[in-house]
Design a protein that fits this description.
The structure holds 2 protein chains of 2 kinds.
Chain A lengths: L4 H17 L13 H28 L6 H26 L10 H20 L6 H14 L3 H14 L5 H15 L3 H13 L6 H14 L3 H22 L6 H18 L6 H8 L3 H18 L2 H13 L7 H15 L5 H16 L6 H29 L2 H17 L6 H14 L3 H23 L11 H11 L7 H6 L16 H20 L6 H21 L6 H14 L3 H14 L4 H16 L3 H12 L6 H26 L8 H9 L4 H15 L4 H14 L6 H14 L3 H14 L3 H17 L3 H14 L3 H17 L3 H13 L5 H13 L3 H13 L5 H24 L7 H23 L4 H23 L9 H36 L4 H7 L24 H12 L4 H13 L3 H12 L5 H13 L3 H14 L4 H14 L2 H10 L4 H4 L15
Helix pairs in contact in A: 2-3, 3-4, 4-5, 5-6, 6-7, 7-8, 7-9, 8-9, 9-10, 10-11, 11-13, 12-13, 13-14, 14-15, 15-16, 16-17, 16-18, 17-18, 18-19, 19-20, 20-23, 20-24, 23-24, 23-25, 24-25, 25-26, 25-27, 26-27, 27-28, 27-29, 28-29, 29-30, 29-31, 30-31, 31-32, 32-33, 33-34, 34-35, 35-36, 35-37, ...
Chain B lengths: L2 H19 L2 H6 L11 H6 L16 H20 L3 H14 L6 H16 L2 H14 L6 H13 L5 H5 L1 H4 L8 H18 L2 H8 L7 H16 L3 H13 L4 H17 L3 H9 L9 H15 L2 H10 L12 H12 L3 H23 L8 H7 L3 H22 L9 H52 L54
Helix pairs in contact in B: 1-4, 1-8, 4-5, 4-6, 5-6, 6-7, 7-8, 11-12, 11-13, 13-14, 13-15, 14-15, 15-16, 16-17, 17-18, 18-19, 19-20, 19-23, 20-23, 21-23, 22-23
The chains are: A mainly alpha, B mainly alpha.
Chain lengths: 1157, 520
């Protein structure tokens, strides 16, 4: 097989490099295969290459004079070199590779032949293009033959004769190495520098590397460090530029490893040594190789801190090899020497890992494993316990935490060691000191369980003596723990087993320690749970269960322990925090019972109640509070606090029941009523009934409201809300059309009401209802109260007038006069009051007193329409006296002439009065004045017509006299008719329904009273059974049932009680009266003699519904009754035939005018 | 043919050549050189590997004699290996191994032959130990490829702990004589080890040297993508995964890549693409098919395809997924029902969760160790990190039983004693690792269960609240009631009423018809 010359050269170069670099660094050489096979293979190769040599020679002979002849010579020389190499390896294998310095005669001879061929090329082919290569090959062979002077000669020729040759730098490198090996550093450096002065080439990296070693040998460590760094970085850059992995990784690795020495000399206090090497290393393997040397270097220099950092890194990277044990030992020694435990947790973990790798290594004998176990167990324990002491001395929380991790690492690896109980104890202590509460809880629990297991195994109470790896060393270890300095690392290592600081003076499993551990677990878990939000879910759950387990064990095991209260408290607290309130309340309550004076007792009491409050079990809370208050050992303050909490709970309980009632639908107040029963006689019981009442009120269920309200009033008659409750009941009774009950409630409410201002409307309501219901006495009492409470004249007047009207409605004019008179005597007066009082007096037969009142009314002036009408009425009624005087003047009472003069004088004055009344804008009284004027005119006419003849007149004179009187009488007749016509026209226009209007419409003068006087309808008890009862119950359930209200009003009307009928129909009108309601309202007004009001209602009924037959019939009848014949005719025309007959007897149809008197 | 197979083939050819070179006399004499058959195992365990069973005597052979005898035994063992006569091979290889002086390079050849023989008999863990030993010693570079091939083969079967692959043994192995495929294996393991150490540059150094088309090249790309995800560079990670999927990845790597792609797309909000990717994943070594279904169901849920999501949730009830631990599926079911305003069913999902896991949760709350709670213990077995340890641990346990079943032939030359020692140490180690893994895994499962319980609680609360409010989507728009899906009498799709019968091939495509009861 033909091998390209270049490749062969590289192989040779590599072999040369092996030899050259042995003094500086080691380079890996591929190991040969087994000798038997290899020698045979090499011999076969020799035969092959000999064949090639012979073939080349033959070709040379055939190629004389050819241009490629020097190439053939070159090939021939190389084949000799190749054969020489095979002979070398045959000799090497033959002596079993014991020494590479093998002497092979064949190899030397062949090399010499090769050199001869090379020299022949130089001599015979001066123009050969590869002369530089030939020179380099010759120099190489001389080097291998140990003829270094000749080697230098030929290498020197390359550098001088071929300065641009690619072999120039290679030659310089070999020359440099030659001088370096002879410690001729100046010469070596000169050659290396020559390379570096040339443009960058493949040789530069090696030149830098070699120059670095020159610097080291000159103790120029910064220079060496720089050159090694440059070697690495240039190679890295070269790789990056090539975009592919470099083939020269070994040089980088060597440079990095060799860099360690100058690095430790230059950087006495390195800041980030690991980062530095990590950055320069191209792989983990290279990094570890460098660190291995670095660690050793620092250790030798006594820089244990730096060495420790390096060994930690080495061990942490998992580089577990034969050196690991040594690294671990050095790490341990270094830490002891430095007495710095900043990385104790990592150190413990790493040392444990080194041991673990061997604990299960089948290649190690059991004895060896056991030795390692003893050694590493002691290392880890020693480090951890010493760090523990250091943490104690410094009170260093962070170090405590690290020590805890170190102990953890120990327990994970040496879980069967004798010191485990002590280490567990220590672990628990440091976790507690580090405020790692959850971990502390776990640790204490482990101590606890270990102790229990030991006790169960029959060792109860017996202390497990601390047994370090070597009992003989225990005392020394204790001495160390007391502060004795650690021995020299070398000495410690010589002892094989390091000294171990005792974990604690009294470690073991005594009953006391078991108890402390159990309490510790409870306390630690409790503290951990205070920060539960920082824990994982499982940790929370396990902390709670651990706490409970430990606490229950504690309570069961040491019933008289002093910190039992705290343990029990924490146990209860664990349930409380997990919202298991029932258990929490029970446990807290038991704690209070048992330890009422302990600090935990007070908090427990609150938490017990709070547990129940959280469950909204207020009844339970109140009961528990009361139960606890009975404990005689409780302090007064605690009892007061409990009582306060219970009181608050009662309110909350009531709130809860009240809120429940708000959404309970049917029977919504049952809960509140039951609550009231439970708390009968208490404030909260009263509030429960109040809330029940308010809740029921919103339901529109009068029956339920009455039940609740009356119970409230019955059980709490002095309740502040009694008046409001009664008033509300009254209002609701009104809403339900139960007026009698309403009147009673209003009456009682008024009596209960303490605020006069608030009392007045209630009393007024009561009075109004009483008046309607015919209870005049009650009504008077009520209005007396209203009047007494009225604070202004206007209020008094208004109340008096209202009440008077109510009394007049039922014909109680005397009562009216009394009310109005009382109002007037209290100072309140106006025209209307004076007039109304006058009229009441008048109607009750006290005309003289009435006249005085009219005078007073007439003397007042007001623009108010009602007042103006009152004044008009007063003036009319006062003038009635004038009219009576006028009417009383008749002949025979004196001289006729004087009589006539007096008569017409009176007429003239009366006429003036009436004209004044007519001018006062009151239609009602203007019609009355016109009617009465007509009467006066007629009277005057008749007076004239019946006037006696003056004595002494003759017949003609008498005739003329009579004619003259007749003429004047006729004039009065005409005036009378004019007055009547005007009156009738005005009545038709304004639809006035009075006696005056009726008279005018009938074409007659007003003879009697200008107003109709009606006897009030007789009161008949309204039926309370049958349909009426049904309706009332229905309305009580639904006060907006307007249809039922109308029906009930009709029933009352039929039963002859227009008074209640009116109240009911007024209630029915609240929802917006319809045509039927208006009609009924009109009928009731009609029955009560309020015809004007009746007209308005009938008219409204027809406005609402023009087809309402009853309303039209009623309106027609009313028109007819007052003489509005045309209007009656018109309305009648709209009625269907027979309507009146069909509806005869209908309660909603007025019976006609027969009742009008 | 895989790299290791090819390599094993070459090794056998070489061994055969060696066998031919053994003199006939030596072969005939070989049995007579065997050590006493009844060597007590316990005694051998005391001196397992340090020296041959025979102690020094007055007639103790010289080193040369020992070497000659060992050579003879080795040749016999190699011949037996070629003939797949594993028992003979094991006995002779073991004896050769213990007979060779410790300094003899051929001793490793004997150890390697012993490893091959043990592997042939099914003692994978013993074989692995010896392969690692040869790699670690590194005294015969020409044997390294065979030893590495053995490790690699067992690694592919999941019978080597990752911890062992990542420790220094492989990291420090010389690559000089290692064929490219095994070099890829080494570079991959080194790269992974460096990733674990957090050194990306070194990882890159190793991964760059792997043939990107090979299995380990693909796995390296996947590992790079995962590390990019951890570096919070999802876009770059997705780019790497897409590149990997564009090449012809091996089925196992492809599944891993598709799953990673799906997850990245999900996180990026590219839900339809994520669904498509999930759909192609039948499961990986670490993630069971059912878990992938649940992930797809969540994706459907997020993209608003609730019928598809619910279909997959119900598919998870299939017996094929009975062993999976998927408490979150109840929460998802409840959420879907809630979105459809099936409030009672939503609450029932939470109730079902409690019925299924309530007892386990109560036991956790009562302080019972999670490892002792059956539901949790069962779920722990499928936690990837635990499963990896259990696979090796189970193999170890099985092989310990296999060892006990071997007849007296194994006493020959102290082989049984050696294996008893090896399995004793290795078994103890694996039991320890198993306990640690199971403890950590069970805690992880318990935590997950408690988290799911919290979700179920929240679900119940949300359902309670939802009953009283209008059903709006996240943007406040009113949730429109979609037209109810009408099952056609005929058509290009067949509809079947679900009767609790699951067909494995249908599971990934199940949909759930459910009426939307939300008000508009």
């Amino acid at each position: 097989m033909m091998v390209p010359a270049g490749n062969r050269f590289r192989i040779l170069l590599a072999a040369a490099a092996i030899v050259v670099t042995t003094g500086c660094a080691s380079m890996r050489v591929a190991q040969p295969p087994a000798p038997e096979d290899e020698i045979a293979r090499l011999q076969r190769n020799v035969n092959k290459v000999r064949f090639a040599i012979q073939s080349t020679r033959d070709q040379i002979d055939r190629a004389r004079g050819q241009a490629y002849l020097p190439d053939l010579y070159l090939r021939l020389a190389e084949l000799h070199v190749e054969e020489a190499r095979y002979h070398y390896f045959i000799a090497y294998e033959g002596q079993k590779k014991r020494d590479k310095a093998v002497t092979s005669v064949q190899a030397r001879l062949l090399k010499e032949r090769a050199v001869a061929i090379y020299e022949r090329i130089l001599q015979e082919f001066p123009d050969f293009a590869d002369r530089d290569k030939v020179l380099f090959f010759i120099s190489h062979e001389f080097r291998e033959l140990g003829e270094f002077d000749k080697m230098r000669e030929y290498l020197g020729r390359i550098t001088t004769e071929f300065p641009q040759s690619k072999y120039r730098n290679e030659a310089l490198l070999v020359l440099g190495d030659y001088h370096f090996d002879r410690a001729e550093l100046d010469q070596a450096e000169r050659f290396y520098q020559s390379i570096l002065a040339s443009p960058e080439s493949q040789t530069h990296a090696m030149a830098r590397y070699k120059l670095g070693w020159v610097r080291i040998n000159r103790l120029d460590f910064p220079g060496a460090l720089k050159l090694f760094e440059e070697t690495i970085t240039h190679l890295l850059e070269e790789e990056e530029e090539a975009g592919a992995p470099s083939r020269r990784i070994d040089l980088r690795r060597e440079a990095l490893v060799d860099l360690v020495f100058p690095y430790t000399e230059v950087n006495k206090k390195p800041v980030d040594q690991l980062g530095y090497f990590r950055k320069l290393a191209d792989s983990r393997t290279t990094y570890l190789a460098a660190l291995s040397k670095l660690g050793r270097r620092w250790f030798v220099k006594g820089e244990f801190t730096y060495a420790g950092a390096v060994y930690r890194e080495l061990l942490d990277l998992g580089a577990d090899n034969d050196d690991s044990v040594e690294w671990a030992q050095r790490l341990y020694d270094g830490v002891l020497r430095e007495k710095r435990f900043d990385h104790v947790e990592l150190d413990a973990k790493l040392l444990g890992r080194v041991y673990l790798a061997r604990r299960y290594d089948w290649r190690l004998a059991p004895k060896e494993r056991e030795n390692l176990r003893a050694e590493f167990e002691a290392y880890v324990r020693d480090l951890a316990t010493r760090a523990h002491l250091a943490a104690k001395e410094r009170s260093d929380t962070e170090l405590y935490a690290r020590v805890g991790d170190a102990y953890d690492a120990y327990l994970q690896v040496f879980d069967d060691a004798e010191a485990v109980p002590e280490i567990r104890q220590n672990l628990a202590e440091v976790r507690t000191a580090a405020n790692q509460h959850y971990l502390a809880g776990k640790a204490w629990e482990a101590v606890m369980e270990g102790a229990i297991a030991a006790r169960t195994a029959g060792k109860g109470g017996a202390k497990a003596a601390p047994k370090p790896a070597d009992t003989a060393k225990a005392d020394e270890a204790k001495a160390d723990a007391k502060g004795a300095p650690a021995k020299d690392a070398a000495v410690a290592k010589a002892d094989a087993k390091p000294k171990v600081a005792p974990p604690r003076a009294n470690a073991g499993t005594t009953e006391q320690e078991l108890r402390d551990a159990t309490a510790g677990a409870v306390s630690a878990y409790a503290k951990a749970l205070e920060q539960a939000h920082k824990m994982a879910r499982l940790e929370q759950v396990q902390a709670r269960s651990g706490l409970r387990r430990a606490a229950k064990f504690y309570v069961a095991s040491w019933p008289n322990a002093k910190d039992r209260a705290a343990v029990k408290f924490n146990l209860a607290r664990s349930y409380y925090d997990e919202a298991h309130y029932e258990e929490a309340a029970e446990l807290f309550a038991a704690l209070v019972e048992e330890f009422p004076t302990a600090p935990e007792g007070e908090v427990a009491a609150e938490l017990a109640l709070d547990s129940l409050r959280s469950r909204e079990d207020y009844e339970g809370l109140i009961a528990l509070s009361k139960r606890m208050q009975k404990n005689p050992r409780l302090t007064a303050k605690m009892k007061a606090d409990l009582a306060s909490l219970a009181a608050g709970a009662e309110s909350r309980a009531l709130e809860t029941v009240t809120l429940g009632a708000g959404s309970a639908g049917e029977g919504m107040v049952d809960g509140l009523m039951a609550f009231a029963s439970t708390h009968a006689g208490s404030d909260v019981g009263e509030r429960a009934l109040v809330n029940a009442f308010i809740t029921a009120r919103n339901s529109d269920d009068l029956g339920q409201v009455i039940e609740v309200g009356e119970r409230l009033l019955r059980e709490y008659p002095k309740s502040d809300v009694a008046a409001d409750v009664l008033a509300t009941l009254g209002k609701m009774s009104v809403q339900a059309a139960d007026f009698e009950r309403a009147a009673q409630y209003f009456d009682q409410a008024a009596a209960a009401q303490k605020d006069p201002a608030a009392r007045a409307p209630t009393m007024r309501a009561a009075g109004t209802l009483m008046a309607y219901l015919g209870d005049g006495k009650g009504a008077r009492r009520a209005f007396a109260g209203v009047l007494a409470g009225a604070t202004s004249d206007a209020a008094k007047q208004e109340a008096a007038l209202t009440f008077a009207e109510l009394l007049e409605l039922s014909g109680d004019w005397a009562g009216s006069a009394e009310v109005l008179g009382r109002a007037r005597s209290s100072g309140a007066t106006n025209a209307l009051l004076e007039y109304r009082l006058g009229r009441a007096l008048d109607r009750s037969g006290r005309a003289r007193e009435a006249g005085a009142q009219y005078e007073k009314a007439a003397s007042l002036a007001s623009a108010d329409p009602d007042q103006a009408e009152a004044i008009a009425a007063a003036r009319f009624l006062i003038a009635e006296g004038m009219y009576r005087q006028f009417a009383a003047i008749s002949f025979g009472g004196g001289a006729d002439a004087q009589v006539i003069q007096a008569k017409f004088g009176a007429l003239s004055r009366y006429e003036a009065e009436m004209l004044d009344v007519i001018g006062r804008q009151s239609a009602r009284w203007a019609l009355a004045a016109l009617g009465r004027l007509a009467t006066a005119y007629e009277d005057a006419a008749v007076f004239l017509e019946k006037a006696p003849l003056p004595p002494g007149l003759d017949a003609s004179g008498a005739e003329r006299y009579r004619a003259a009187l007749a003429s004047r009488a006729e004039g009065f007749h005409t005036k009378a008719q004019e007055a009547i016509s005007t009156c009738a026209a005005k009545a038709g226009e304004l639809k006035v329904f009075t006696a005056a209007a009726r008279a005018c419409l009938a074409g007659k003068p007003l003879a009697g009273d200008p107003e109709d006087r009606f006897d009030p309808p007789a009161r008949r008890a309204a039926p309370s059974t049958g349909r009426s009862k049904e309706l009332r119950e229905k309305i009580a359930k639904d006060t907006k049932d307007f249809a039922s209200l109308v029906e009930l009003a009709t029933l009352y009307l039929q039963a002859g009680d227009p008074y209640q009928a009116r109240l009911v129909v007024d209630k029915a009108s609240e929802g917006g009266a319809d045509s039927q309601t208006f009609n009924l309202r009109g009928v009731i007004a009609y029955r009560l003699g309020r015809h004007q009001e009746a007209y308005e209602s009938f008219r409204a009924a027809l406005d609402k519904d023009d087809s309402n037959v009853r309303a039209r019939l009623n309106l027609t009848a009313l028109y007819r009754a007052y003489g509005y014949d045309r209007q009656a005719q018109a309305e009648s025309a709209k009625l269907e035939a027979g309507a009146a007959g069909r509806l005869a007897g209908d309660a909603a149809v007025i019976p006609g005018t027969t009742e009008v008197r | 043919m895989s790299a290791s197979d090819r390599h094993a083939g070459r090794a056998r050819a070489w061994l055969l050549a060696a066998l031919i070179a053994v003199p006939p006399m030596a072969r005939a004499q070989a049995p007579a050189d065997a050590p006493p058959a009844e060597a007590p195992a316990a005694a051998a365990a005391e001196q397992p590997t340090a020296a041959p069973a025979d102690g020094p005597t007055s007639r103790e052979p010289t080193p040369e004699q020992k070497t000659a005898k060992a050579e003879l035994l080795l040749e016999k063992a190699l011949a037996a290996v070629s003939a797949s006569a594993w028992k003979d091979a094991a006995v002779w290889a073991h004896e050769a191994w213990v007979t060779f002086p410790a300094s003899e390079e051929r001793r490793e050849a004997a150890e390697l032959t012993l490893a091959d023989a043990l592997l042939g008999m099914g003692f994978t863990q013993a074989a692995a130990s010896h392969y690692f030993d040869v790699v670690e010693r590194r005294s015969m570079p020409q044997l390294l490829p065979r030893a590495l091939a053995g490790v690699e083969g067992l690694s592919r079967r999941g019978l080597v702990l990752e911890e062992d692959l990542l420790r220094g043994v492989l990291a420090d192995a010389d690559l000089a004589n290692v064929p490219p495929d095994l070099a890829d294996f080494l570079h991959y393991q080194r790269g992974i080890a460096n990733l674990r150490l957090g050194n990306r540059r070194w990882t890159g150094y190793e991964f760059d040297r792997i043939d990107p088309k090979g299995v380990y090249g693909q796995k390296a790309r996947l590992a790079r993508a995962v590390s990019l995800v951890r570096d919070n560079e999802p876009d770059r990670a997705l780019e790497v995964v897409e590149g990997l999927l564009a090449s012809e990845a091996s089925p196992a790597v492809e599944q891993e890549a598709l799953l990673l792609r799906a997850r990245l797309l999900f996180e990026a909000g590219r839900l339809p693409e994520a669904v498509e990717s999930f759909r192609k994943v039948g499961g990986t070594r670490a993630v069971a098919g059912g878990e992938v279904l649940l992930e797809r169901a969540w994706t459907h849920y997020r993209e608003g395809k609730l019928h598809d999501a619910m279909g997959l949730v119900y598919a998870l009830a299939a017996p094929a997924h009975a062993d999976l631990f998927l408490p979150e599926s109840y929460v998802l079911r409840g959420l879907i029902y809630q979105r459809f305003c099936h409030f009672r069913a939503a609450r029932a999902a939470a109730a079902d969760f409690r019925a299924r896991y309530g007892d386990a949760i109560s036991q956790v709350e009562a302080g019972k160790a999670p490892t002792e709670i059956p539901v949790i213990a069962q779920a722990t077995l499928i936690v990837p990190q635990v499963a990896a340890v259990l696979r090796v641990s189970d193999a170890m346990r099985e092989e310990v039983r296999l060892l006990a079943d071997q007849g007296s032939w194994m006493e020959e030359g102290g082989l049984r004693a050696h294996l008893v020692n090896l399995y004793g140490a290795g078994g103890a180690r694996l039991e320890r690792l198993r306990n640690v893994a199971v403890r950590h895994g069970s805690e992880e499962v318990a935590e997950r269960l408690l988290a799911a319980r919290e979700q179920a609680n929240l679900l119940e609360y949300e359902v309670g609240v939802s009953i009283h409010k209008r059903v709006n989507d996240a943007e406040g728009k009113v949730w429109r009631r979609p037209e109810p899906q009408v099952v056609p009498r005929t058509g290009d799709k067949n509809f079947y009423r679900f009767n609790g019968e699951f067909w494995t091939d249908e599971l990934p495509d199940m949909r759930f018809l459910i009426e939307n009861r939300c008000v508009e």
